[in-house]
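S.,

Sequence below, as promised.
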Amino acid sequence: MRPIETRYARSGEVRIAYQVVGQGSFDLVFVPGFISNLDLHWEDEGYSRLLKRLSAFSRLILFDKRGTGLSDQIDAPERLDAFCPAMSVGRRF
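The prediction came back faster than expected:
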C-alpha cells in the first residue's frame, strides 16, 4: 500500500490532520481514542489491518484530534480546579 497523504483542515487557529482512504460508496468517519497519531496507525500491524478492511468498502476518513498526533498542539487546558466553582464541586448540601 502506498503512503497515505495527510491533509490539514482549519478549526479556528488550529490545523487538524486527516487522511482519506478508500473509494467506497459511503463515508465512514473513524473517531480515534484519547490519543492518536495517523502515521503510527499504519505502522501497527493489527491497527493497519483494521483500517484496510474498513477502507475496502467505504471512503474511510481518519483524523488526529486537536492537540494530538499530527494536528497542531494547543495550549495546556486550564486546571480542573478552575472549573470547580462553575460545576459546584466541593459544595456541601
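DSSP finds three helices and four strands in the chain.

Coffee later?
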